[in-house]
From TrEMBL:
Superkingdom: Bacteria
Organism: Actinoallomurus acaciae
Protein family (similarity comment): Belongs to the 3-hydroxyacyl-CoA dehydrogenase family.
Pathway the protein acts in: Lipid metabolism; butanoate metabolism
Domain 3-hydroxyacyl-CoA dehydrogenase C-terminal as annotated: residue spans: 184-279
Protein name: 3-hydroxyacyl-CoA dehydrogenase family protein
The protein's Enzyme Commission number: 1.1.1.35
Domain named 3-hydroxyacyl-CoA dehydrogenase NAD binding: residues: 6-181
A Pfam family of this chain: 3HCDH_N
Length: 285
């Protein structure tokens, strides 16, 4: 097996996956068609390794070597054929993901994966010639800090692909769980339900966001409250997931009007600097 991993999409999750993979000695090709986004991704990767060195988590020579293992390319055609793993990490829209996966399959990866957090693997596999090689690899943000990897097995996923997905998770330093295919899987279905209800509580004036979050961190020992987590994940991402789950499970996953209005206003959480909290340089104020 060659040690090459392709990531398609240089947003928050794609950059995180590329960072962890390169740190674990994969040669990484990060595919991003938008030139400005590609430049931002390169800068974010450099900054992340610089922070790791400054914090004493990564020796400087290891950071330099890891950075050298990442190549940012402008198209799938510029990526090498037959990678060990190809992970699609574009925005959470089924039509976009199907189109990207259909094109990515032409590179003939041994394992083809989607980082979807809610869309059915069966539905995405409909675009593929080899659905037996396809799984969900649902990483969590920030990828370098969150240990969980949700391995989502579709009805056509082979035993070999399942085993390889678990091995990839181990190599990346993750703690993988296996979930059978269903919209929202295990984590998004539960987490979004809690997050949407917390947003409705803000909408109804039940309590301030900080107090709602403290209720869950102090009363239920959640490491992060549902509203702060929504800011970290991104309100736009939460909205896309809610819409997907509503189509699958009905109105109990209907997006609150407050969530839709905040996204429309560009209040996306940590990445925009404003959500339920104010963020400066990635730190909640």
């Amino acid at each position: 097996m060659t040690d090459r991993l392709v990531v398609v999409g240089a947003g928050t999750m794609g950059v995180g996956i590329a960072y962890v993979a390169a740190s674990r000695r994969y040669d990484v090709e990060l595919v991003e068609t938008d030139a400005d986004q590609a430049r931002r991704a390169t800068r974010r990767l450099r900054d992340r390794w610089d922070k790791a060195v400054a914090a004493g988590r990564t020796p400087a020579e290891e950071a330099v070597a890891a950075r050298g293992r990442v190549r940012v390319v402008e198209s799938l055609d510029a990526a090498g054929r037959e990678p060990s793993v190809l992970v699609e990490a574009v925005p959470e829209r089924a039509d976009l993901k199907r189109a990207v996966l259909g094109s990515a399959e032409r590179l003939e990866p041994r394992l083809l994966a989607s980082n979807t957090s809610s869309i059915s693997i069966r539905a995405l596999a409909a675009a593929l010639d080899r659905p037996d090689r396809f799984v969900g690899l649902h990483f969590f943000n920030p990828v370098w800090a969150m240990p969980l990897l949700e391995v989502v097995v579709g009805p056509s996923t082979s035993g070999e692909a399942r085993a390889m997905a678990l091995a990839v998770g181990d190599r990346l330093g993750k703690d993988p769980i296996v979930v059978n295919d269903a919209p929202g899987f295990a984590t998004s279905r539960l987490g979004v339900a809690l997050g949407l209800e917390a947003i409705r509580m803000v909408e109804d004036g039940v309590a301030a966001p900080a107090d709602i979050d403290r209720a869950m961190t102090l009363g239920y020992r959640h490491p992060t409250g549902p509203l702060e987590l929504t800011d970290i994940v991104g309100l736009d991402v939460r909205l896309d997931i809610a819409r997907t789950l509503r189509s699958a499970y009905g109105d109990r996953f209907a997006p609150p009007a407050l969530l839709e209005s905040m996204v429309a206003d560009g209040r996306l959480g940590k990445k925009s600097g404003h959500g339920f909290y104010t963020w400066t340089d990635g730190v909640e104020q």
